[in-house]
Amino acid sequence: MVEKVMTIKNIADISLPKESISVVFITGVTGQDGSIMIDYLLRNTNAWIIGGARRLSVENHSNIKHLQDEPRFQLVNFDLTDSHSIYKLMETAKPDYFINFAAQSFVASSWDFARQTWQVNSTGVLDCLEAIRKIKPNGCRFYNAGSSEEFGNVVYEPQDEKHPLRPRSPYGASKAAARQLIKVYRESYNLYAIQGWLFNHEGPRRGEEFVTRKITKGVARVVKDLLINKTPVPIELGNLDAKRDWSDSEDMIDAVWRMLNQEKYNRSIETQPTYNPFIQESIIPFIHEYVVSSGGNHSIREFVEVSFKAAGMTDGYWIGNGLDEKFVIDRAPLRLTLVKINPKYYRPAEVEVLRGDSGLIRKELGWKPQNTFDQLVKKMIENDLK
Questions:
Q1: Is residue 96 in a domain?
Q2: Which residue among 27, 31, 100, 153 sits deepest, i.e. has the most Cβ atoms within 10 Å of its Cβ?
Q3: pTM for the full model?
Q4: Residue 231 forms part of a structural domain
Q5: What is the CATH number of the domain that holds 172?
Q6: pLDDT tens-digit series, residues 134-159
């Protein structure tokens, strides 16, 4: 049986609904957050969805292959680093929502590709804001994916919306710069433009280069090897002591939609006049940017332990110290190493602890996570064991 290939349109060939239905444009739809956002909107709205994906010689559509025959979704060629592509999309589709999940989002690679990281994560956002300002300033709501990495060298814990931006990587700096651009355009041109601080969020669709998916996929491989009496190749990791506030990506997507529709979810929000020299008698909804997080804190070491337990392996344990630390299991007459340290995975400047205070979005927009840390890890392990 030949697998269907996802149809990709050019921007000029976008088809729009005749009736008055909201149009949502989403970038980065082949990634984790973009693909989950499509599923969320298909379940909870009647929106017409356009997904933008960069043209590649080898397609990577595994996260959206289930949308092959979905009539409310269409995929178009789009490049966030090409301002012409952004303007053409805005002129053709004139979306009501522009949700930007496209990014160079792998923190470790941002040192090797610092210029590309800045071009995609900062300059690309500037071009989006300019296109919206010139083409549909009063009717397009813009969301850009922010990150807890903007806080970087943290001053206090947990981090809330008032915490200063102190990034410690080119990735974190690019996201902090995008936030300032969005603030300038929101205040200068009256745009509904926001950037949430989404703390680490994971799931089965997470790319395999990210440490969480690397762990769960590695655990699944180790389990399979042990079942056939094969000595497993150890999972190689960097700093086991780094702590993160991990949430389920599906919970985070709900928060994004609430941020884009704050007057719907927060009945206490009042519209207030905002002086703008470019738009007379301008009135916009009062909008906030929010920290979105579970409020928990778990180390890489703990993620490893919970992953093996979720896979049914409860007899693993740590030995050694520093670079010689290992996670092992005894299988007589051998002691097998399942996880070991590789110094090449250490960052030049590490962010040791990130934990978010999401009290404001819980209070104002009624958001709260639906999944625990253990449930998230179990979901990822079960997926990779398949």
A1: yes
A2: 27
A3: 0.89
A4: no
A5: 3.40.50.720
A6: 999 999 999 999 999 999 999 999 99
